[in-house]
Amino acid sequence: MIVNLEKYRLKRQEEQAYRLELVEQIRLCHQTKPESERADTFYFEHIKAHFSIEMLEEILSRLQPKVSNE
């Protein structure tokens, strides 16, 4: 039981680290936009707290091609 709990905690820590990495990449993509189109700090806090990893990956995939094309 304790081993399972430790595995769960480790998995959650890894997921949280990945989530933070995705949000940071999204933030960097937004910095390349004109100031009028950039998201505010609340947006990043909101997506970090409420969006699934899959949703964050989708947002990032939509932003990255736009950045590389510009």
Précis, in short:
The protein has helices at residues 2-31, 41-50, 53-69.
Strand tally is: 0
- Major pleated sheet: none
Helix content: over 70%
The helix tally amounts to 3
Would you tell me the structural class of the helices and strands? mainly alpha
> What percentage of the residues does DSSP assign to strands (E)?
under 5%
Task: Report the principal-axis shape.
Answer: elongated
Write down the Rg: 15 Å
How far apart are the termini?
Answer: 52 Å
pLDDT < 50 runs, ≥5 residues: none
Order of helices and strands: HHH
Mean pLDDT: 88
Q: Give the quaternary arrangement of the chains.
A: single chain
Describe this structure as you would to a colleague:
By secondary structure, this protein is mainly α. Helices cover 81% and strands 0% of the residues. It contains three helices and no strands. The chain has helices at 2-31, 41-50, 53-69. Helix 1 (2-31) runs parallel beside helix 3. The chain is elongated, with a radius of gyration of 15 Å. The protein starts with a helix and ends with a helix. The relative contact order is 0.13. The model has no long low-confidence stretch (mean pLDDT 88).
